[in-house]
Amino acid sequence: MSSQLLRVQCFNVSQDGFGAGEGQSLERPFGHADPAPLWSWAGATASWVNRTDPGGTRGLDDYLTRDHTRNIGAEIMGRNKFGPQRGPWENHEWQGWWGDTPPFHTPVFVLTHHERPSFTLADTTFHFLDATPAEALARAKQAAGGRDVRLGGGVATVREFIEAGLVDTMHIAVAPVELGRGERLWESHTDLLDRFHLDTVPSPSGVTHLLFWRR
Amino acid sequence: MSSQLLRVQCFNVSQDGFGAGEGQSLERPFGHADPAPLWSWAGATASWVNRTDPGGTRGLDDYLTRDHTRNIGAEIMGRNKFGPQRGPWENHEWQGWWGDTPPFHTPVFVLTHHERPSFTLADTTFHFLDATPAEALARAKQAAGGRDVRLGGGVATVREFIEAGLVDTMHIAVAPVELGRGERLWESHTDLLDRFHLDTVPSPSGVTHLLFWRR
After folding, report:
1. How many CB atoms lie within 10 A of CB A163?
2. Which of A22, A29, A60, A80 is most buried, judged by most C-beta within 10 A?
3. Would you state the pLDDT for residue A112?
4. What CATH number did the domain enclosing A40 receive?
5. Residues in CB range of A36: below 8 A, 6 or more apart
6. Cβ distance of A67 and B64 shorter than 8 Å
7. Structure confidence at residue A50 as a pLDDT band (50, 70, 90)
8. Residue percentage of chain A with pLDDT more than 70
9. Contacts of A54 in chain B (CB under 8 A)
10. Nearest-CA distance B4 → chain A (Å)
11. A residues 151-170 near B, CB within 8 Å?
């Protein structure tokens, strides 16, 4: 295993394996799915990256949210995590869902068949790459300054990197909710057990943390 | 809660509540207790501070060992963690159990009624304080450069800081072994529930992680 890992952290799916609903739009980044029941376990913790007020829990879930940023030097995401547009860019005004201060604080590599110029918001720079997963990972590791790379999603991007054999560790939180349709991460997570070790850890908050690491 | 926390991390006890056996000596830091069954869960992980070879697990237990050093800027320990001597120092030759490169990499404050000069081994400096828990914590926070302070043990020192109301978070790993006698952390951990929230997390490795945080 390389000393620089490719890690999925705090990626949330429903009990039936969906990471997002159907019909993503500007108003509904998760499509028909209500993101609250998928994400509330993370938002309740003291260390969650988007927390603005003091307080929050410091139990098991907090250990998981702390690792979302620990030793991360770059993020790779698919175009569907960056925004709702498909096909050629109509303009470059859209700069992601996250406002003037995105919560990444590192270089971010957005995979797309339609490249566009890099731009910087606060301490996050977005680059756009038309590249294979292996090429994108090489670029991201170079930019990460010796730190690990986080694979941020969405679902199709996580699947693509798993299939390319590039993912070292994965934390998937299974929320106690069913979505019925949308972007599916897996039929069953047991499909991955030929390639990964797995710890299954039920949390007092109601989610189940699945912790995978490469065999 | 202060932005600088006092944290207990990876402190191991037996099912019957003992953190060390009876009869500590130079040869047996844990007295009659065999430390292996208390510590083996941590030693198996990829991130354990004393790991020398590559490899190791990256599941739940690894999240816990990673936090042993994350954002720690100083350690406080009792004299019984530092060494087996009691009473006035016969000489200053003893420099702890850890050889030329102690695994702390920060200032360490050793509580003792018998002060002695500070000394440095690699990137760890040991200071010796005859002080109350609150005084020692103030010194350690000052030395920690904005980071948290780890309370390293032993048992008597952890109890003393709990009783003084100074501990913010605590990770205690309960190993599937009984010691019968020795240094007892508690009769029952439920005694602490008036002062702490608790997540109880059984690990696939066989230990149970108890995660406390201040109410």
Report:
1. 11
2. A60
3. 96
4. 3.40.430.10
5. none
6. no
7. confident
8. 99
9. 1
10. 13
11. 168-169
- Whether B116 contacts B40, CB under 8 Å: no
The answer to whether residue A26 is domain-embedded is no
- pLDDT category of residue A2 using cuts at 50, 70 and 90: low
Q: Is residue A94 part of a domain?
A: no
- What's the pTM value of the predicted model, to 2 decimals? 0.93
User: What is the pLDDT at residue B26?
Assistant: 86
What's the pLDDT at B2? 54
Q: Do B204 and A200 touch (CB under 8 A)?
A: yes
Closest CA of chain B from A213, distance in Å: 6
Residues 16-75 of B with CB under 8 A from A: 54, 57-60, 62-64, 66-67, 70
Question: Is A208 contained in some domain?
Answer: yes
Cα–Cα distance measured from residue A96 to residue B5, given in angstroms and rounded to the nearest whole number = 35
Q: Cβ contact (<8 Å) for B201 and A197?
A: no
Q: Are B19 and B151 in contact (CB under 8 A)?
A: no
Please name the member of B54, B58, B67 whose beta carbon is closest to the beta carbon of A169. Answer: B58
Query: Quick check: A60 and B215 in contact, CB under 8 A?
Result: no
Residues in A touching B6 (Cβ below 8 Å):
none
- How far is Cα B207 from Cα B199, in angstroms, rounded to an integer? 14
The mean-pLDDT minimum among B90-104, B139-153, B161-175 falls in: B90-104
| Closest residue by Cα to residue B128 from B118, B137, B136, B140 | B118
Interchain CB contact of B88 with A (< 8 Å):
no
What pLDDT score does B1 carry?
A: 44
Q: Could you list the residue range(s) of the whole structural domain that residue B134 is in?
A: 6-24+31-85+103-214
Q: Residue A91: inside a domain, yes or no?
A: no
Does the structure show a pLDDT above 90 at B3? Answer: no
- Angle, nearest 10°, between helix axes B155-163 and B133-143? 100
